[in-house]
Write a structure and sequence with these properties.
This protein is of the alpha/beta class and 759 residues long. 56% of the residues lie in helices and 18% in strands. The protein contains 27 helices and 22 strands. Strands 14, 15, 16, 17, 18, 19, 20, 21 and 22 form a nine-stranded mixed β-sheet that branches. It has a six-stranded antiparallel β-sheet with strand order 3-2-1-6-5-4, sandwiched between helices. The longest helix has 61 residues, at 154-214. One magnesium ion is lined by residues 540, 600, 632, 662.
Length: 759
């Protein structure tokens, strides 16, 4: 409401009520007038007591008005006084000469007062009644009905006239004066009110502005009616339309779901008398606003909570600043990776949990080779770009729980947590991650148009015992990193010499194998598979590595390494190609044309999405008969994605290729899987054959496998058969196909050919 509006409204509401003093004066005047009239009557007409009725009535009316006044019923008092006066005047006139009575001059005064005090309509009514009274007096007088007025001295008559006139005029003047005084007073009050309203509006506007500047909204929450009243700023803070009033739930739903429980708990505590002060988030669009809410709950004397009066402050900026401070304190500003301080914290936690769980922690120190040269030649901008990209690539190399930090310059640290409890397993895993880092960081970089190469040197230390401190660990990794630099850079080194030796040997073997594969140092040996009558029905191809220095290396040594490094893929490819070529060579000779060839396929190899295509291409290129090719799978192949394996097996079977399950009984084959696999043969593992003569369990297992194979419609072959006694027992158990030293060792191509021809 604007100030001028409010002033008008007040003026229009003014209805005049006579003041108490004014009324009292009127009553005194009435009493005085009445007593004066009684006195006059007593002197002038002592023989006419009936004429005293009028003044006596006036005295009664004055007293009735007085009693209402005392009870505070001012309006009733006014009405009683006015009507009573009228009746008294009329009564006096009736006994004192009708219209000729001087008291008649009071009628206009009464009409005016009724108009002022009651309403204009009432004034009209009283005026009409006055006219009726006067007309009645005239009629009554002419018909002689009225008592004739007492004889009176003209002077006295004039005096009475004068008294009545003066009294009426005084009364009227008093009323009018009181009216105007009150009007003036009301005008002053209303202008003061308007002024105060203006001031209040201004201070309310100031408050709103101050709240908006401070981003603090105030509110009152009536706990009895569950209604919240919010200031304009509080509405903004809560992100509700201005002027919204509603239950607490209306605002609770504005609270971020994650903060609701805490908010509810804070309110519960506040209702028990605790101070209310908590921070919560609101979902404003897609961003989140932080709000601090502080309030006090007011209670009734009996402890009932009545209302909460509080403020809600938008603290988003403060939170952002805190976050920024945290970021500056704990993160590197260039790469946004954790800095040395946060790394220290994380390492501390990692070491504590490692001590508890026994799971190992590895620390990798990574320093970029020749970073200084790049920085000096291409400038710091390019150098910074490289560091950012390195940070990204490093982060991509590790798991989510691992830490990548930047110590400064071109030094980075990776912490691998939750590694295997076995130190060497942990070392092997760390090595593979470090190799991934070497490979990833070694990829070329496009730095604002500059194509650059950069390689890292990595030093690794493992946290192996709880005596090691963070500083020890950092120093060790640093020393190892310098060893990697000394070793020609772009490489990794373990701090622990023993560990270094183990991984070093593996590294050497891997490099050798890669080279051996390229230089044709691998060859296939063939081990005969015979039937119940001793006839050679085929062979198993077993790979051999003719190492220039180490001589013949067993596949048991290099196949696992090849699987780990992925070399198994080119190696397996070579084996399959060589085996198919061998089948073609055998097909040309009548003595060997009937031979089948079993080829071992590793799980990783078989899982290659294009394995079927590769095998089909090799078969087609070599011209080998697929029906002579048997693929040996191990149970580990079947552990993952059985549907895909079945599909691949079916595709290959459609070409004529058959399948044998190698090392059967040592893995975790589920019988339900076995039933679904399109296998042709089960191969009893040599571990059961070895002790079959002495261990009755092995006999039982062999028999069970035979029975299982029979029920599934598969053939059985036993491997590792070294003695005739073993063969006989196997034969008695129902197994009529064998492979083992009893018949032949794995032999080179020529020797195997000889064996078959001699038989
Ligand atoms: P495997 O497929 O179970 O091959 C049988 C292993 O038993 C061969 O060892 C073989 O020499 C050996 N053996 C055969 N008869 C006897 C016997 O009477 N007594 C004893 N004690 N051993 C016998 P090898 O050649 O050392 O191969 C070891 C493993 O290496 C193979 O086990 C196979 O899993 C893997 N392997 C060999 N060649 C390849 C290949 O080309 N590819 C793949 N993926 N794995 C291969
Ligand atoms: Mg095999
Ligand atoms: Mg085997």
């Amino acid at each position: 409401m604007s100030p001028s509006n409010s002033g008008d409204a007040i003026n229009s509401q003014i209805s005049w009520e006579p003041s108490l003093a004014c009324l009292k004066f009127a009553i005194y005047a009435m009493l005085a007038g009445s007593f004066a009239a009684l006195l006059a009557l007593y002197i002038v007409a002592p023989g006419h007591p009936t004429r005293a009725i009028g003044p006596i009535v006036l005295v009664l009316v004055a007293m009735a008005g007085w009693s209402f006044l005392l009870r505070g019923r001012i309006r009733t008092a006014v009405i009683v006084l006015l009507i009573g006066s009228w009746m008294a005047v009329t009564g006096i006139a009736a006994f004192n000469g009708g219209v000729g009575a001087p008291v008649i001059v009071a009628y206009p005064m009464i009409v005016i007062l009724v108009g002022l005090v009651i309403s204009s309509r009432a004034a009209f009514a009283v005026a009409a009644v006055c006219v009726i009274a006067i007309v009645s007096f005239v009629l009554a007088e002419s018909s002689g009905f009225l008592p004739s007025p007492p004889p009176i001295f003209p002077a006295l008559r004039g005096v009475v006239h004068a008294i009545v006139l003066v009294l009426s005029a005084t009364l009227a003047a008093t009323f009018v004066r009181a009216y105007t005084d009150q009007l003036d007073e009301l005008r002053v009050v209303s202008s003061e009110l308007a002024q105060r309203t203006m001031e209040m509006d201004a201070s309310r506007a100031d408050l709103h502005r101050a709240q908006a500047v401070a981003k603090v909204g105030s509110w009152v929450y009536d706990l009895v009616t569950d209604t919240m009243h919010l200031s304009t700023e509080a509405c903004r803070v809560f992100d509700v339309p201005e002027g919204t009033t509603g239950s607490y739930d209306t605002y609770l739903v504005r609270t971020h779901t994650e903060d609701r429980d805490a908010a509810a708990a804070a309110w519960r505590a506040a209702l028990d008398g605790a101070a209310l002060d908590y921070e919560h988030r609101i979902l404003v669009g897609k961003t989140i606003r932080w709000v601090r809410l502080r309030a006090e709950v007011e209670f009734a004397p009996d402890g009932t909570p009545l209302r909460a009066v509080g403020v809600s402050q938008d603290i988003t900026e403060r939170k952002a600043a805190e976050e920024e401070i945290r970021r500056l304190a704990f993160y590197d500003s260039l790469t946004h990776l954790p800095n040395r301080r946060l790394l220290h914290d994380r390492l501390q936690q990692a070491l504590v949990s490692s001590t508890r769980s026994g799971r190992k922690v590895a620390l990798l120190f990574i320093d970029l080779d020749n970073f200084k040269t790049l920085n000096d030649t291409l400038g710091h901008d390019v150098g910074d770009k490289l560091l950012k990209k390195v940070a990204k690539r490093l982060t991509a190399c590790v798991r989510e729980g691992d830490t990548v930090a930047r110590l400064g310059g071109d030094e980075f640290v990776v912490v691998l947590e939750d590694l295997n409890e076995d130190l060497y397993e942990a070392a092997a895993h760390t090595k593979s991650v470090a190799e991934k880092i070497l490979a990833t960081l070694g990829q070329p970089y496009d730095l604002a148009g500059h194509h650059c190469g950069s390689t890292p040197s990595i030093g690794i230390a493992l946290f192996a015992d709880d005596q090691t401190t963070i500083d020890d660990l950092m120093k060790r990794a640093d020393v190892a990193m310098y060893q990697a630099k000394d070793a020609g850079r772009n490489t990794l080194r373990f701090f622990d010499p023993e560990m270094q030796a183990v991984v070093g040997a593996r590294l050497a073997l891997e490099a050798d194998l890669r080279q051996g594969l390229a230089q044709g140092q691998l060859l296939l040996h063939f081990q005969a598979q015979v039937d119940g009558s001793g006839r050679v029905t085929g062979a198993e191809a077993l790979v051999r590595w003719q190492h220039p220095q180490r001589g013949m290396v067993s596949p048991a040594e290099f196949i696992p390494l090849a699987e780990e490094t992925g070399l198994i893929l080119p190696l397996g490819d070579w084996v399959l190609t060589t085996a198919c070529n061998q089948l073609v060579a055998w097909a040309r000779q009548p003595a060997t044309a009937h031979l089948t060839l079993a080829v071992n396929v590793s799980a990783r190899q078989f899982r290659q999405p294009d394995f079927v295509t590769q095998a089909r291409d090799i078969l087609a290129d070599s011209g080998a008969d697929p029906r002579k090719l048997k693929l040996e799978l191990t149970e580990s192949t079947l552990l993952e994605d059985i549907e895909d394996i079945i599909a691949k097996m079916n595709d290959l079977k459609a070409l004529g290729v058959s399948f044998s399950l190698d090392d059967f009984g040592t893995g975790y084959s589920s019988l339900s899987y076995l039933k679904r696999l399109p296998l042709d043969q089960l191969k009893i593992d040599q571990s059961f054959v070895r002790d079959i003569l002495t261990d009755p369990n092995d006999v039982a297992i062999a028999r069970t496998i035979v029975a299982l194979a029979q029920s599934l419609g598969l053939s059985v072959i036993a491997e590792g058969v070294e003695t005739e006694a073993q063969r006989e027992l196997l034969a008695n158990s129902g197994c009529h196909a064998y492979q083992g030293y009893l018949f032949a060792h794995p032999l080179p191509t020529e020797a195997f050919g000889e064996l078959v021809r001699r038989a």
